[in-house]
User: Which sequence fits this backbone?
């Protein structure tokens, strides 16, 4: 079976699958809101949600401290984990499709390196500016500069690709390598110039949701929504692109225009999550492979399946990062995803290999 073949499952099976993952994701969110240094039971968590959604009186049965922990600290962080996991997984599926490369992930073309460089600049400068608008005080300037850096990196990748002969798979990958390598060198230079900022830069690059708030959710959510919508609207053309450029042109697809729009949509998703979480690996690489084994390779279903699975993986990875060490210390969630993703990706590759052998 080809990696990009159409799914054989019926629509009924797909519906059952999506209902199951939505239910499991909702359960995971509730469970993750219970985990942390302060023990909070499921009844208290449910009461907080009931009060917040005005389904019960705020004056009955909810401690204000518990409500603040659940809603302002844990739920905002869990919801951000959902957005980050969704964005990484969907963008990974898009990059693997548009580059026709099963090893592509959200960081292949240098967008993440641009985000890391933007964040490094802010950390190197002390992370402060003289005047920050009131609505940005909860967000900080790191996500803003990180997002801007990612978009600038995308601009250079697209420009270099077009100068080298157009938005072809080979030129996009090579341009991404050039941009990523150059920006990584600049990051290393900044770390060498200011040893005091090295720890903060390294911690950010390792990926973490520690200290994030509703401001970060509000910042990333519109970009995640827009990026996903753009990719879904181009899913049919992306299916055709996997047949090859020549065949796609014969079928009436404007190859470069579609490839550019998919590239922009996937890069927006990558920038949106990296700017608020740092670099979190393996989610965007592994999740699309797992989703493809379940729903097939048609991109409309694949994007949705990857998004839900990525959200679940990210919620549980972040939960593990919060409770793994005693005393309240946190492990960067990027470390958790790498530890879980490496062996799991090997398992997925073996399963895919056996499936291909069975088709011969």
Assistant:
């Amino acid at each position: 079976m080809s990696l990009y073949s159409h799914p054989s499952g019926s629509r009924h099976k797909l519906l059952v699958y999506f209902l199951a993952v939505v239910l499991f994701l909702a359960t995971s969110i509730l469970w993750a809101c219970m985990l942390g240094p302060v023990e909070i039971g499921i009844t208290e968590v449910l009461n907080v949600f009931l009060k917040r959604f005005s389904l019960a009186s705020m004056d009955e049965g909810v401690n204000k401290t518990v409500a603040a922990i659940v809603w302002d600290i844990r739920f905002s962080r869990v919801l951000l984990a959902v957005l980050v996991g969704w964005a990484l997984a969907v963008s990974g599926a898009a990059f693997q499709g548009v580059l026709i490369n099963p090893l592509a992930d959200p960081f292949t073309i240098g967008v993440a390196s641009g985000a890391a460089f933007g964040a490094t600049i802010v950390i190197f400068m002390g992370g402060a500016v003289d005047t920050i608008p009131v609505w940005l005080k909860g967000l900080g300037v790191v996500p803003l500069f990180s997002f801007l850096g990612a978009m600038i990196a995308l601009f250079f990748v697209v420009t270099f690709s077009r100068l080298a002969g157009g938005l072809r798979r080979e030129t996009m990958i090579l341009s991404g390598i050039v941009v990523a390598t150059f920006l990584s060198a600049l990051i290393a230079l900044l770390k060498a110039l200011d040893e005091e900022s090295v720890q903060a830069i390294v911690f950010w690059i390792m990926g973490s949701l520690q200290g994030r708030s509703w401001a970060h959710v509000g910042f990333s959510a519109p970009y995640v929504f827009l990026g996903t919508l753009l990719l879904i609207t181009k899913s049919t053309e992306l299916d055709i692109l996997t047949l090859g450029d020549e065949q796609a042109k014969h079928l009436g697809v404007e190859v470069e225009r579609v490839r550019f729009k998919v590239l922009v949509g996937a890069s927006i998703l990558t920038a949106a999550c990296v700017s608020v979480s740092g670099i979190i690996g393996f989610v965007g690489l592994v999740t699309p492979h797992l989703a493809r084994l379940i729903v097939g390779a048609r991109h409309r279903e694949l994007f949705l399946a990857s998004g839900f699975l990525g959200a679940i993986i990210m919620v549980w990875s972040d939960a593990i990062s919060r409770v793994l060490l005693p005393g309240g210390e946190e492990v960067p969630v990027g470390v958790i995803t790498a530890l879980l993703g490496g062996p799991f990706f090997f398992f997925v590759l073996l399963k895919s290999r056996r499936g291909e052998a069975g088709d011969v």
